[in-house]
Write a structure and sequence with these properties.
Length: about 450
């Protein structure tokens, strides 16, 4: 069995996979079974420009190799090209793209550093799996250094249409670098169609019906591999008693109140302002909902050095204050806005205790919060998932109430429908959704990608 080498911007703590996202959960078992290496940035920032040696440590069958970044690397590669260019671009937000030539230089410099550090650690028969938009040029850098191992790439965020992608300078080279991988995995069929169209229209290369692209003398296979969660582990976590959540649940039950919950990173792609406006509109359109429902919105801080994130925080705080100022009573606060992290165990309990999961990104690769909400529900009295049609999860989770996150009235009416939905309909929808998230769980995602990568023809053959 070939060793698996994983490369990502950050390295997950595999000792805490029960508290991790789909990436760590999906890869932990594969790395333990095969033996493996995981390489990424360790979060440190150094003032020195001297190329650092990777820090390598082995636990059981898994080796982790981590690198620091210099301050320039962090500014140009991470905050710059990755998060001020690619992140807004791939989420269809051209208005937020901030392109500078130094950003691209830093992006390629760090990918070259990763390649230099990884090269001595590789074995001839390794299979290499690279993750996400930070590392698109990594295969090209490794090929230049003589690597012939099978290499796969998985994009966790959306892939934009060609007319958006071409707004960034040197977009052609970016995609030509991407095609140095043997296998490219995307989240949805929409993402596949966008990449296929770019290849056909701008590179003038053929995409076969099976997803094979003929790029020069090479064949590259492209397919969708929707990421999932560890359904059973999250469901068990949701069933664990949580004193604070139970007390609040009992209080709401006595008062006859229901709860809508939203949990997101504080990001402009998540549609948070419109979500709060939709809740306000619910209270306007349906006055009987006043004092009978609350919205709990948890927004975890992220990338606070980027100006757009500071602006979204200010807007959310102002909106929540406005709604509470307009509708609150002495014993009812309509919006509970939390700017901070909540432990994963508490989140699972909160999902289970909430009658509506409100997941309305403006654009998202998959959105695992939607799947976590479904997994957490009590099968005898489940809540209802209200889901944006622009989340990757909407391509599979048809039994959710699918909404347009740009249409405040549409979301408000769907919230009312969710809050008043009969028990039997809720059960039917929940049963169907559980079957779907089990079918595409974290382990099946990892297994299917690795199997496809092993079946790619080796360029060394």
């Amino acid at each position: 069995m070939k060793r698996l080498v994983v490369v990502s911007n950050r390295v997950a703590d595999l000792t805490k996979t029960s508290q991790s996202g789909g990436l760590a959960v999906g890869l932990a078992d594969s790395l333990k079974i095969r033996g493996g290496l995981w390489m990424g940035w360790d979060g440190r920032r150094l003032n020195s420009d001297e190329p650092p040696e990777p820090v390598v440590k082995t636990t059981g069958e898994i080796t982790q190799a981590t690198l620091p970044l210099t301050e320039d690397d962090y500014a140009e590669y991470y905050l710059g090209f990755s998060n001020s260019v690619l992140w807004p671009l791939f989420h269809y937000r051209l208005d937020l793209v901030e392109y500078r030539g130094t950003f691209m230089e830093g992006y390629r410099r760090v990918n070259a550093k990763f390649a230099d550090a990884l090269l001595p650690l590789l074995r001839p028969d390794d299979i290499i799996w690279v993750h996400d938009y930070h590392l698109i040029p990594l295969a090209a850098e490794l090929r230049q250094r003589g690597c012939s191992q099978r290499m796969g790439f998985f994009l966790h965020i959306p892939f934009p249409p060609p007319e958006i992608l071409t707004a960034v300078p040197r977009h052609r080279r970016l995609i030509e670098d991407l095609l140095q991988f043997d296998l490219i995995g995307l989240q949805t069929n929409t993402d596949l169609a966008n990449l296929h169209r770019y290849i056909e229209e701008y590179l003038k290369e053929q995409v076969d019906k099976d997803g094979t692209v003929h790029h020069g003398q090479r064949k590259v296979f492209i397919d969708s591999f929707p990421i999932g969660i560890d359904v059973d582990a999250f469901a068990e976590m949701a069933e664990e008693p949580n004193d604070a959540v139970q007390i609040e649940t009992m209080r709401r039950a006595i008062l006859g109140r229901k709860q809508i919950i939203g949990v997101d990173r504080l990001d402009y792609t998540k549609g948070l302002p419109d979500r709060l406006k939709a809740f306000s509109r619910l209270l306007e359109l349906y006055p009987e909902m006043r004092k009978s429902v609350t919205l709990m919105q948890i927004a975890t801080p992220t990338r606070e050095e980027v100006e757009a994130y500071t602006e979204i925080r200010s807007e959310l705080e102002a909106l929540s204050g406005q709604i509470n100022g307009r509708f609150a009573d002495f014993n009812w606060t309509p919006v509970h806005y939390i700017h901070g992290a909540v432990p994963r165990e508490a989140l699972a309990a909160l999902f289970r205790a909430s009658q509506v999961g409100f997941v309305t990104p403006l654009r998202d690769g998959m959105n695992l919060v939607a799947k976590e909400y479904v997994a957490a529900q009590d099968p005898n009295d489940p809540g209802v998932l209200v889901l944006s049609k622009f989340a990757g999860a909407a391509e599979d989770l048809h039994e959710a109430l699918i909404v347009n996150p740009y249409d405040v009235d549409d979301m408000a009416k769907s919230l009312c429908r969710a809050l008043t939905m009969p028990l039997e309909e809720r059960k039917e929808r929940q049963n169907a959704l559980m079957k779907r998230i089990r079918q595409h769980d974290a382990q099946s995602w990892a297994d299917s990608f690795i199997e496809a990568l092993e079946n790619c023809p080796s360029i060394a053959a």
